[in-house]
Amino acid sequence: MRFSERRLLLGAMDVLIVNAALVGALVLRSDSAATALVLGMQLRWFVLLSGVWLVVAQVLDIYDLARSASALRSAWVAEVAPSSPP
């Protein structure tokens, strides 16, 4: 795979996981089962969340292939970043 394809795959998987989490939240929140109608009515939130996620990802450069290739380095950055002072 080329570098651009790897970055695209990382982004697509992230958006898929974020949207799956949103579906889970909608299922837990609603009294009835999540039907296509209920999810269709919330389409704007899926689009908004995906867009915000991708914009923030580009700003923070979270799809750096050198960082994402090393699980240890990714875990270190994920652990240190939230605990570092602003």
Radius of gyration: 16 Å
Count of individual helical segments: 5
Global structural class: mainly alpha
- Average residue-wise pLDDT: 77
Count of DSSP strands = 0
Name the helicity range: over 70%
Question: Overall 3D geometry?
Answer: elongated
- Ends apart, CA distance between termini: 37 Å
Taken as a percent bin, the fraction of beta residues is under 5%
Biggest beta sheet attributes: none
Runs in which pLDDT lies below 50 for 5 or more consecutive residues are none
| Quaternary status | single chain
How many domains? The number is 1
Order of helices and strands: HHHHH
Explained architecture:
By secondary structure, this protein is mostly helical. The protein has one domain (3-83). The chain has helices at 3-29, 36-41, 43-60, 65-69, 71-83. The protein is elongated and about 45 Å long.
Short description:
The protein is mainly α.
Which helices and strands occur, and which strands form pairs?
Layout: H1 3-29, H2 36-41, H3 43-60, H4 65-69, H5 71-83
Helix pairs in contact: 1-3
List the defining traits of the structure above:
single chain, mainly alpha
